[in-house]
Amino acid sequence: MSGNERKPGAAGTRVVLVTASGPGGQVDVGVRSDATPADLASSLASVLGVGIGPAVVEHHAPPRPGTPMGTRVRLDAYTSLADSGVADGDLIAFKTPGEAAALRPGG
Questions:
Q1: How far apart are CA 48 and CA 39, in angstroms?
Q2: Which of 20, 30, 53, 80 is most buried by a 10 A CB count?
């Protein structure tokens, strides 16, 4: 899609400011809230160090009113950031399946 084309209904699409991280690094980025983690990985593959292979995507949110401990949950790579509850200031972490398994209790 070129910069001049718009998706239907794109005029009201919000932009969320997130930090995307992966095995190769991290970057702060403004991304459309209707984008998916898969879109984000595709656009930032060289910065994040993620390829076309499988990746585990996690959403880390800082403490907020109502969630004093913050949140850390896995994301569906094909569900929009907005539908996944991603908000400004959140971290989207891309991990290889091996990295994700090593972080699990007993893993």
A1: 13
A2: 20
User: Which residues are CB-contacts of 70 (< 8 A; sequence separation ≥ 6)?
Assistant: 60, 61, 62, 63, 64
Structure tokens at 42: 């595709």
87 burial level (CB within 10 Å; 0-12, 13-18, 19+): middle
Q: Which residues are CB-contacts of 43 (< 8 A; sequence separation ≥ 6)?
A: none
Please write the tens of the pLDDT for every residue from 60-107.
999 988 888 989 999 999 999 999 999 999 999 998 877 656 655 554
- What pLDDT score does 1 carry? 42
Closest CA to 41 of 2, 27, 4, 70: 27
Q: How much is the pTM? A: 0.77
Angle at 90 between CA 85 and CA 92, to 5 degrees: 85
Please count the other Cβ atoms lying within 10 Å of the Cβ belonging to residue 99: 15
What residue ranges define each of the domains in the chain, with the CATH number in brackets? 15-103 (3.10.20.90)
